[in-house]
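Hello,

I think I submitted the zinc ion job twice by accident. Can you confirm which output corresponds to this input? Input:
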Amino acid sequence: VIEKLSAAVALLDRLQVLDQQRARIEAERLQVLHRYRELRARDSDFDSRSVPAEVALALRVSNSHAESQLALAHSLAERLPDTLQAMHEGTVDLAKARALVDITQCLSVEDARGVEARVLPKAADRTLTQLRSAARYQRDRVDPTAAERRRQQAKADRAVYFEPMEDGAAQLAVYGPGERVFQAWLLLDDTARRLRAAGDERSLSALRHDVLLDLILGKGDARVSVTAYLHVPAISLAGVGDDPGILSGYGPVTRQACQELAAGDATWRRVFTDPISGVVKDMDRRTYRPSATLAEFVAVRDGTCVAPGCTRSAHACQVDHTVRWADGGCTVEGNLDALCWPDHRLKEACGWVLTQPQPGRYLWTSPVGQVHERAPESMFEL
Ligand SMILES: [Zn+2]
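Support: Only one job matched these inputs. Its output is below.
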């Protein structure tokens, strides 16, 4: 048993030595990079923009990667030499060094070294996360005015980001002043934990997700209505075929997802597309008064403003009578089009003539007699 234990300890010791060696090699690498830049800077025809490209070519890495390495080397050599020295001694690894550079970047050299002096002695015994929070604390202590300024900036930049992902998922991120975003996180976490404690078997992670989305979207009668457009090939909805649908503004969703969404949830509008041409044919109309539905249908069918080359979303356009109401045009599908305001003016005041020989098919005649056809477009690559 003792033999086994000492063999295990020997392996851990070996790992420690290897990590120290790696830190030393990284330090040397960064110094060489820094020296290279300095050497090149002495050339009379030196252009600093060329250096990253030269390094990138030699190391077969991307330009931006070389650039970030050079910047790191420069910061360590010029601003935090003690950290670079600690890497040489194997007490600070690359990740920790980078963290110190990033966190002190906004400070003067003098203040940056003040922070370094306070956190470096304990850096070897701290994890990366611990080191980061110690460094952040010292940074805000050294310059509290700047810390508050950064917080105000975060407040001004507050935002929510939506990012569709490749695998049928998407991400919603909330950015803003830390203490407030953290408060929201605490509420989610606390609610999820209480549900868990009460016997809910979903994972904590899944519970936080469900609690958040229930709060935003509402549950049951409290559901808040928002309209999203789900384009489905008519065949898929009937349960035949496996073609994905397209959620407008997001991208493709699987047939199963279409069916789950279509099953009675009024916040989704199904848009039926012709299975052959992929062109919008009709839309679920049950939740809107006819006129609103018709306007909405026209916007969905046209997709964008129908003027030649215009890409403004039809939902941001006005619904226009192709043949003016005053000239006897009717309020029907085949006489309504989506036009943005500037293009509406083009038609009304600049002598462009628009006709709609079939619903969704447009012919434009310019004042000099050129004709442009805008055919209905398919959302699908059929
Ligand atoms: Zn337009």
